[in-house]
Write a structure and sequence with these properties.
The protein is an all-alpha fold and 308 residues long. It has two domains: 4-239, no CATH class; 240-308, no CATH class. The chain has eleven helices and four strands; from the N terminus they run E-H-E-H-E-H-E-H-H-H-H-H-H-H-H. GO terms for molecular function: 3-oxo-5-alpha-steroid 4-dehydrogenase (NADP+) activity.
Length: 308
């Protein structure tokens, strides 16, 4: 098959990258007021309108992020550069797993069709942005394969991917078929963070951004952080009342629980108040050791300055 010569569209790359950055921040601000209605946050009162089964929804919305870069890889002539095609295949590896494995295994709730459509559009644009930039615009020196950023970034990517896949496995096996009761996940990174699957994916794309060291990949990593970071926070907030968290989460995760609540105070998520956060910090004091906190306690209205 004859390949097409495609020139780098630098203006489009810049425009899309900044659109991701601005859009990510805007999406973060939106999520301080409301949840994105998919997964556990789909309304059960009939208001979402048309919905798509979870397996089909995940397959359709993740597929463009795999197909578009693969199409560019197979039909266009890449700009010379060592390792660039390998980095594109690394990007595609994540979406192969999400499209053809995760979507078949997921047990999630149906998603509103407009959410699925929005995700298809985003993944199509992002698939083109990452594939086109890496194949036709990116330039790396001959020393790049030995650069610490490449090695560190790839390590972060594959560790994050392993955490993401393992955490999804834990979540899928929390409940038996037909069960609807909510259960707290345990094991793996869930012993340290309550949104381990989100943490893994954020680590993946931050690693990919470090490995490629480019504006398009950093913009995507930022968008990922802004979109699923607050979702991880909301998951933690809704997992149990503050008064009962002490008995649910292991002590080694208590630091992260308290810090997640404080994160909510700082950016104003939901209805978290400084007084409420102070209660949480006080509840978990036995799990903190020598944590610098004078300014934090001042912000929370506490007078003591002894180390936690």
């Amino acid at each position: 098959m004859r390949r097409i010569i495609m020139e780098c569209n630098e203006n489009l790359i810049q425009y899309l990258s900044w659109w991701f950055i601005i859009g990510g921040v805007a999406y973060l601000l939106r999520q301080t007021r409301t949840h994105t209605p998919y997964g556990r946050y789909v309304s059960s009162d009939g208001t979402p309108g048309w919905t798509c089964p979870a397996k089909l929804a995940w397959f359709l919305q993740e597929l463009p992020s795999f197909l578009v870069p693969v199409f560019l890889l197979l039909t266009t002539v890449p700009k010379p550069g060592l390792g660039k095609e390998m980095l594109v295949w690394t990007f595609c590896l994540h979406y192969f797993q999400r499209t053809f494995i995760y979507s078949l295994l997921t047990r999630g709730r149906p998603s509103p069709c407009y959410i699925v459509f929005s995700a298809v559009v985003f993944c199509s644009v992002n698939g083109f942005l990452q594939g086109h930039y890496m194949l036709h615009c990116a330039t790396y020196s001959d020393e790049w394969p030995s650069d610490i950023r490449l090695g560190t970034g790839l390590l972060m990517f594959f560790v994050g991917m392993a955490i993401n896949i393992h955490s999804d496995h834990i979540l899928r096996n929390l409940r038996k078929s037909g069960e609807v009761v909510y259960k707290i996940p345990k094991g793996g990174m869930f012993e340290y963070v309550s949104g381990a699957n989100f943490f893994g994916e954020i680590l993946e794309w931050c690693g990919y951004a470090v490995a490629t060291w480019s504006l398009p990949t950093f913009s995507f990593a930022l968008f990922t952080l802004c979109s699923i970071g607050p979702r991880a926070y909301h998951h933690h907030r809704n997992s149990a009342p503050l008064s009962s968290q002490q008995s649910i989460f292991p002590c080694r995760r208590d630091k992260m629980c308290a810090l997640e609540v404080l994160y909510g105070v700082i950016i104003g998520l939901e209805d978290v108040h400084p007084e409420e956060a102070a209660i949480v910090v006080g509840r978990y004091e036995k799990c903190f050791t020598r944590l610098p906190h004078a300014h934090l306690l001042s912000y929370l209205g506490r007078s003591d300055s002894s180390p936690l």
